[in-house]
């Protein structure tokens, strides 16, 4: 399928570390124009299904050289406060290394200082450590939870926090008045597509204070489907058949065939709507199922007054 690349606004320019969010320019992406900032390169969560490894390799989270200087330059001279910043889209901002380095905490402090809007995307309960800073800023948090099964999560996302800890983190953030959302992403056939599993995740998140969920089916790339096959050898043949033999190659990914994708998304949709949650899908093209002001959760970000850049 030909990719009609979406034009970006002229006042959204890339900085030295604050990049324009447009890694794949998929016509199926419904995200608003925004920035993307990765305090780390690589990701120690080592999720089997990770999409970013196709582009940056599979390596642990490491610091970027000259990160703070480059960040400050961008915040003072490049970033347009009209657009929010996703932290992060191709590496988690709270890998275990963050306990030592604190570079994400430092980053958030600067974003608050400059009155910029941000959306944290993580799979780590460590985010609660920074609730003091987050609650002072224009910042919302979305947490990815794909299953409540601790053993399955450890196989799928070996470096990330156990699911109950992620839910507890959402609860604690929500209790502090911080807007929170859930990413049930990805839904993988035969792995976490059971309706009971989906219900369990949504109910736990709802009970923790979450009222927005975005979901997506797993999209296969040659490297991540190989990892999935190694992690789940009993499913290797079934996944290859669904994706490589019967699926659709679109915009650099094998997608499940459309009918199956819709069926999986409807499972989440029904449970979300039963609970009265806002619902969105990510890079699926099912606009008729959209029941939220934004697909990425950016509508959750508070809007308080912007401050001067010269501080
Ligand atoms: S947390 Fe995100 S970036 Fe990190 S390995 Fe998992 S999917 Fe990849």
For the terminal residues, how far apart are their CA atoms? 48 Å
Any idea what the shape is? globular
CATH architecture annotation name:
Alpha-Beta Horseshoe
- Kindly identify the CATH topology: pyruvate-formate lyase- activating enzyme
Poorly predicted segments: none
Order of strands in the sheet with most strands:
1-2-5-6-7-8-9-12
Helix content: 25-40%
Question: How many structural domains?
Answer: 1
Sheet-strand content, in percent, reads 15-25%
Number of strands: 12
Name the bound molecules.
Answer: iron/sulfur cluster
Radius of gyration: 18 Å
In the CATH scheme, the class would be: Alpha Beta
The overall pLDDT, averaged over residues, is 94
Q: Give the topology string: H per helix, E per strand.
A: EEEHEHEHHEHEHHEHEHHEEHE
Task: Give a brief outline of the structure.
The chain contains 11 helices and 12 strands.
Structure description:
The chain contains eleven helices and twelve strands. It has 311 residues and is of the alpha/beta class. The protein has one domain: Alpha-Beta Horseshoe (pyruvate-formate lyase- activating enzyme), CATH 3.80.30. The strands form three sheets. Strands 1-2-5-6-7-8-9-12 form an eight-stranded mixed beta sheet. Strands 3-4 form a two-stranded antiparallel sheet. α8 links the parallel β8 and β9. The longest helix is centred in the C-terminal third of the chain and has 18 residues. The chain starts with 17 loop residues before the first strand and ends in a 30-residue tail after the last strand. The structure holds iron/sulfur cluster (SF4). The site of iron/sulfur cluster has 11 residues, from loops.
């Amino acid at each position: 399928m030909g990719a009609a690349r979406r034009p970006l606004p002229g006042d959204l320019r890339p900085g030295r570390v604050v990049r324009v969010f447009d890694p794949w320019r998929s016509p199926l992406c419904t995200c608003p124009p925004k920035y993307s900032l990765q305090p780390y390169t690589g990701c120690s969560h080592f999720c089997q299904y990770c999409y970013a490894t196709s582009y940056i390799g599979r390596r642990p989270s490491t610091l970027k050289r000259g990160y703070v200087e480059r960040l400050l330059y961008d915040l003072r001279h490049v970033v347009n406060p009209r657009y929010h910043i996703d932290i992060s889209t191709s590496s988690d901002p709270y890998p275990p290394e963050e306990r030592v380095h604190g570079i994400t905490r430092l980053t958030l402090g600067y974003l608050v200082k400059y009155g910029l809007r941000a959306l944290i995307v993580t799979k780590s309960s460590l985010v609660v450590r920074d609730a003091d800073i987050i609650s002072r800023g224009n910042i919302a948090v979305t947490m990815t939870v794909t299953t409540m099964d601790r053993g399955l999560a450890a196989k799928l996302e070996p470096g990330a926090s156990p699911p109950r800890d992620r839910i507890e983190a959402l609860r604690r953030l929500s209790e502090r008045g911080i807007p929170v959302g859930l990413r049930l992403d990805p839904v993988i056939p035969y792995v976490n597509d059971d309706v009971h599993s989906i219900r369990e995740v949504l109910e736990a998140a709802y009970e923790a204070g979450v009222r927005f969920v975005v979901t997506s089916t797993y999209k296969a790339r040659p490297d991540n489907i190989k990892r999935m096959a190694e992690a789940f050898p009993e499913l290797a043949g079934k996944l290859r058949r669904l994706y490589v033999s019967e699926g659709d190659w679109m915009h650099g990914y094998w997608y499940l065939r459309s009918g199956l994708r819709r069926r999986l998304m409807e499972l989440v949709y029904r449970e979300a709507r039963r609970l009265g949650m806002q619902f969105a899908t990510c890079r699926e093209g099912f606009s008729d199922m959209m029941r939220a002001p934004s697909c990425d959760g950016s509508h959750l970000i508070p809007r308080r007054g912007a401050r001067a850049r010269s501080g």
